[in-house]
Each structure stands twice: as structure tokens, then as C-alpha cells.
Design a protein that fits this description.
The chain has 367 residues and is an alpha/beta fold. The chain has three domains: 1-49 and 92-112, no CATH class; 125-185, no CATH class; 189-363, von Willebrand factor, type A domain (Rossmann fold, 3-Layer(aba) Sandwich), CATH 3.40.50.410. The protein is elongated and about 95 Å long. Helix content is 37%, strand content 21%. The model is unreliable at 45-49 and 88-92 (pLDDT under 50). The strands form three sheets. It has a six-stranded mixed beta sheet with strand order 7-6-5-8-9-10, sandwiched between helices. A two-stranded antiparallel sheet has the order 1-2. The protein is built from twelve helices and ten strands.
Length: 367
Amino acid sequence: MRMESDLNRFRKIVRGKIKQELKKFISTGDLIARKGNKSITIPIPRIDIPKFVFSPHNQQGVGQGSGQEGEGTASEKEQGGQEQAGDAAGDHTLEMDVTLEELADMLSEELELPNIENKGISNIEKQGVKYTGILKTGPDSLHHFRRTYKEALKRSISMGEYDYDNPIVIPIKADKRFRSFKEIVEPIANAVIIYMMDVSGSMGDEQKEIVRLTSFWIDTWLSKQYKGVSRHYIIHDATAKEVDQDVFYRTKESGGTLISSAFKLALEIMKEKYINNDWNIYLFHFSDGDNWSGNDTTECLRIMQDEMIPNINLFSYGQVESRYGSGQFLRDLTKKFGDEHEKVSMAQIKDRDAIMDSLKTFLGKGK
């Protein structure tokens, strides 16, 4: 019990350290590189438990012994010179495995994110089984060995058949016990995330890295909220295509920008697989704000208003600042939908330090 208590206390300390550095972790790609199947390895400063130690200088304490008023302590004198090379070990970081679920909880606490209001949750169900008790009859597949042996032992002792020197217990048919169960219907909620990214010539490597980091934390949060998450990745310049996750983050394509091409492809995916099945649909589009023409922007706004928004939980637009991007698309979206639209979230992501604020904007509505 003492060891378990100490372990829990240690994990609380580690959790506090991680929360203190959460903004730094969010803005760096090191965590994603350390991602496993269900956990992440996080480097944190070494944690030392406070303890009393003897002075290494074999001297009396501060304020004792010989010396003049105002004279520095021995340790202060030593710090005055430059450090020399030595053979002693330096400080090392401690690496801790943290589950993605724990990471999502920390993100939720730090950003004060609400839980998701699931769309269509009562319409998506699965059959389940709940064990409710013990019966004297049942199929062999539900045979409860421990309860059977207990009944046999009680019967053997009560009838005087139990031999303490030669303890043999043989159950008979009357001793057998079986689990009872009932079928239950459990509501579930599934979500689909469609990521869209502008890969035109004005989107550089740093802009794409910001998209990668933002998407990772979005994914971590939504995966905590839902039992099943499906993902699609769309890249676009003047044309759009669906790709896998690796291509989405590492593509080097360039060219013009036609945002409506991505919106139309996302709409095709939605109509083919998700709209009529009560899925919770999330759309995330990232761009530097340039579009080919005002006519194409008008088409984008029409698609959003008439076909996307009525069928989704949330449309989020992240505008990544680029020296080549005009940023006009964010202004057009704001003019059309305003800052407080129920299903539309917009954020300007100037640099990596702005990722944390964008996450709160995207996920703070609880949709």
C-alpha cells in the first residue's frame, strides 16, 4: 500500500510538471516523433525528492565560523569563476510514458474544454452483455468454476465426507453453478474528421509543420471523446485529392489555389459514407488565406452554407500566416458567418505559440 501511495504521488508530480510545460509541448514536434500506439514518451526535467545531505566542503554552516561581515559564502565564491571540465555526471531528463487519454485530459483541464455534445448518439447502438447473477442451470460456456467448487466443498464438509488429511473435492451435478446474463443495448457515437490543407506554392514547410502539430492535438482530443474515429486527408492547390496521413504532412506540391476543389471532395466523401448515418462530422481546413478568385470564394461559402453546415458538428478554419499569403479567406469567412456562429470556428495561427489558442477556439464550443 505504501509503494502504491508513493507511485500515485509521483505520478501526480509528473502530471503537474507536464501541465506546466504543456504549451511548450504543443508547439514542438518532438512529442509526435515519440508517439506510440496508445502512449507518448515525454521528456521532463529530473525530479529529485528533497533530502538532507552533508556539505561536500567539510565546513560549518552559513553564519558560523570565521569570516568578515558581507563576505560571500564558499559556494558563492566558487560560482564566481568559470566552470571547468570534469568527470562527474550531469543532469539528465526523465522520460515518462503518458497515455494519449491522459494527455487529452491535461489539454482539457488546461484549456477548460467542454465535453462534446454527441450528434445522433441515441440512434447509433450496439448490443452488449451484462452478467447479473448466478444460476443452478446453464450452458457449459457460462460455467462458473469457483462457485461450483465452493458449493462442492460446502456439501462435502456438511455431509462429513471431507478428509482434512486427504482433501479431495469432486463436484456433482447439483453443485454446478452458471453465470446469468442479459443483453443490453449501449449507445455509441462515432466521429469522422476530414482534414484539408492548402499545399500551394505559398505554403512553406513551417506552415505545414504548424498544421501537423495542430492536427495531432485535435486528433488526441476527439479520440478521447469518441469510441471510434475515422479520418480522411485532403490536399489541394488548384485541384484536390485524398491522400494518406504521411503524404498529407510531407507533400511538397505547389501551384495555384482553388479552395472549392477541397470542399467539393470533402462533400463527396461525406455524402458517400457519413451524412445519412448519424456520424459526428468534423471538418478542418488549413490555408494561408489565398484563393484563386473571389468567384471561387463565393462558391466555397455557398457549399458551406447550403450543404456542409446542416450536416456537420463543426467546420474549423485555421489560417496559417505566410509571407506570401494575403489572408483574405479568413476575412471573407468572418464577414459571412461572424465570430459567434454555432458550427463555424476560425483561428489565425501566426506561429507555433498560437497553436494552443487555436485549439481552444476550435474545440471550445463542445460540438
